[in-house]
Amino acid sequence: MMTAPRFCQVGNFEGYFCVKRNGKKGRRLNAKKQADSKQEQAQAEKIMAESKNDPKSFFPAELPRLGDSELKTYLDEHTVKLLRGVEPPRATLRQLKCGLASKDFLDCGEVYRATLGHWLLHREFNIYKRLEGIDGIVQHVFMPHKRVLCMDYLQGGRDLKAVPVGELPHSALDQLCNLIEKIHSRGVIHFDIGHDSNGDYGRETNILWKDNKIYIIDFAGSICGSPKPLFELLAVHDRMAIVKVIRKFFPQEKIDPHWLPTPNQAKWLRFLRKL
């Protein structure tokens, strides 16, 4: 007895066809498909487990010797999704199959990626190494190739623009204050978390909320080793992020004058913003 035609997909073929009720061929196809799916899942879990212990083990030993085009092909094949698409001259951000995030300039022109792109990646890598061990900074930061920067991917993390008012606990504010001060204590200014003094979230923030913890990411525009007067001025710029968080999530909270720029500092910050 035949069933009514129905839609199925086998391999790359899509179409309508009839199958016998409880047919052996249909059962074998389903069993094979389920076995293949379980095998792929087991392989992915194995790769993830190995990469958590040693993230560098995900990459083949010959990777550092690959040319730029071969490297891009390899990354494309091992990318789960693009976190930021191709927008030259900005870096391409990827989520890799091993649970890492990567940053590269491989979609930019050859001269750009070999000069400024190369310098930006190595500079950001060195800043992450300076911040190593601080709770709230991504870990396992390394460069498997001179053109690629890799680090832990914060799966499920949300930037503060996406967190509803009332969901963020007060402890998150304390975490943010402590995290910014720890970053400054290592001689680093983020310089990309406190743009708007009025608390406006007109852009995506580099502050993430994940598993009841605050993270600060993306140190591509960070500054380190500045003279003390300039460092103090830029530190105020970072602390404006605290003011933004208070105004959005804790409007009844008193704002510490230490987090606000003096009139003279505000004038210089406006000048720097125009540059």
Q: Which fold name corresponds to the CATH topology of the largest domain?
A: Transferase(Phosphotransferase), domain 1
Helical content band = 40-55%
- Largest sheet at a glance? 5 strands, antiparallel
Question: How many strands?
Answer: 12
Task: Return the string of H and E elements.
Answer: EEHHEEEHHEEEHEEEEHH
Q: Which shape, going by the Cα principal axes? A: globular
N/C terminus separation = 78 Å
Count of separate structural domains: 2
Q: Can you say what the CATH homologous superfamily of the largest domain is?
A: Transferase(Phosphotransferase) domain 1
Q: What ranges have pLDDT less than 50 throughout 5 or more consecutive residues?
A: 1-21, 197-202
Characteristic terms for this protein:
single chain; 275 residues; alpha+beta; Phosphorylase Kinase, domain 1; Transferase(Phosphotransferase), domain 1; 2 domains; five-stranded antiparallel sheet; three-stranded antiparallel sheet; 18% strand
Task: Provide an overview of this structure.
- The protein is an alpha+beta fold and 275 residues long.
- It is 40% helix and 18% strand.
- The longest helix has 30 residues, at 24-53.
- Strands 3-4-5-7-6 form a five-stranded antiparallel sheet. A three-stranded antiparallel sheet has the order 8-10-11.
- It has seven helices and twelve strands.
- It folds into two domains: 55-152, Phosphorylase Kinase, domain 1 (2-Layer Sandwich), CATH 3.30.200; 158-274, Orthogonal Bundle (Transferase(Phosphotransferase), domain 1).
- Helix 5 (170-185) runs antiparallel to helix 6 (228-249).
- The chain has helices at residues 24-53, 68-77, 110-114, 116-130, 170-185, 228-249, 263-274, and strands at 6-10, 13-17, 79-84, 92-96, 100-104, 142-145, 148-152, 158-159, 188-189, 207-210, 213-216, 223-224.
- The relative contact order is 0.09.
- Strand 6 and strand 7 (148-152) form a beta hairpin.
